[in-house]
Prior knowledge:
Elements: E1 3-12, H1 21-30, E2 43-47, H2 59-62, E3 66-69, E4 72-75, H3 80-84, E5 103-105, H4 107-112, E6 124-126, H5 159-170, E7 176-180, H6 189-193, E8 199-201, E9 208-210, H7 220-224, E10 230-233, E11 238-241, H8 246-249, H9 256-260, E12 266-274, H10 278-282, H11 290-295, H12 304-312, H13 317-325, H14 327-334, E13 339-340, E14 351-354, H15 386-393, H16 398-419, H17 423-428
Parallel strand pairs: 1-14
Antiparallel strand pairs: 1-12, 2-7, 3-4, 5-6, 8-9, 10-11, 13-14
Helix pairs in contact: 15-16
The protein binds iron/sulfur cluster (SF4) (2 copies).
One iron/sulfur cluster binds next to helix 1 and strand 7.
Amino acid sequence: xxxxxxxxxxxxxxxxxxxxxxxxxxxxxxxxxxxxxxxxxxxxxxxxxxxxxxxxxxxxxxxxxxxxxxxxxxxxxxxxxxxxxxxxxxxxxxxxxxxxxxxxxxxxxxxxxxxxxxxxxxxxxxxxxxxxxxxxxxxxxxxxxxxxxxxxxxxxxxxxxxxxxxxxxxxxxxxxxxxxxxxxxxxxxxxxxxxxxxxxxxxxxxxxxxxxxxxxxxxxxxxxxxxxxxxxxxxxxxxxxxxxxxxxxxxxxxxxxxxxxxxxxxxxxxxxxxxxxxxxxxxxxxxxxxxxxxxxxxxxxxxxxxxxxxxxxxxxxxxxxxxxxxxxxxxxxxxxxxxxxxxxxxxxxxxxxxxxxxxxxxxxxxxxxxxxxxxxxxxxxxxxxxxxxxxxxxxxxxxxxxxxxxxxxxxxxxxxxxxxxxxxxxxxx
Length: 429
Ligand code: SF4
Ligand code: SF4
């Protein structure tokens, strides 16, 4: 057993209000320099939607993460050596239009502009070329609050047909927020895809960092990461990424996104894991087994044998105590109400998500249609489809998501019963 400590995060999606405070405070702290304008170490996506960069989950296009070849864990885009052959043109790279061209406004024009028919006249100017952009077409959360709804209904000259379509499609429209940072993976494909070894995983806390002296700006990490959480600084020609606010965490402070999160959705904690098990766990054949495989790497911080071995491995008492108190351990490993984002990428991500509960669909009016006894809401009839949550959090394992939602629903009903009256009152309401 090779015990290591890892800092990790759980985000409770029911509590995210999509305010982007986390993104803005992160940006002000880490990416407010020339060359970093388009970078969002923390971003919040409106889902379902293409995300940032656009369609980052399309692993066929971007070739990020790991796959199994003849049962062997293999980088989807090929190893660093084969990638070096591609050095002048890497066809899998996300391009500027997949992020967006950073721009600023000429605010002077707002104040001193001549009278005109259409105001405001502050035109956006590219930060890179210095030229005016006629019409910005994309941004890091361009589809905020639309969630794909805008292209669901095709215009149809037959109004009745269109109304029917709207009824069918819009009644089913749903949205949710998905805040994202680097996953500080246990099996990081960004590290494996870097030919110079500039990306590394810190031994003491598992934070994944870039050594800027070693980075040659080849950008293989950029599409090596299936979550697209490594960026290229066009000014310094180095890779940059979320560093889990290590200068803050080393001083005992939370990350800036956690500290400023308006919804208090972010829980930070330390977990202990057996590093000898990671590769085997990441190589299980069926993607739906990856969740259990990843759980099997984690160790019980209350187990005396684990504690002893952790001390032998140089993990100090403060970290052991933190592992016992860890909300991440409780939510992800003990209560099993949090799930990893896209486990099928096989990087063993360490930011886990409590899936959102959502209301029962309005159009279900016949009580007989509800698969519920009145106490536990029917998870299959919630507005956010179980299938969708399973596609991002469970490698399409709907049963796993159902189990988590049922636990959350039961806890909600129980707490309501305790705080605002008995379960019967809840049922009537
Ligand atoms: Fe590396 Fe972070 Fe991407 Fe994981 S999420 S592969 S640690 S950049
Ligand atoms: Fe969501 Fe918190 Fe970020 Fe607001 S600050 S968008 S609530 S994660």
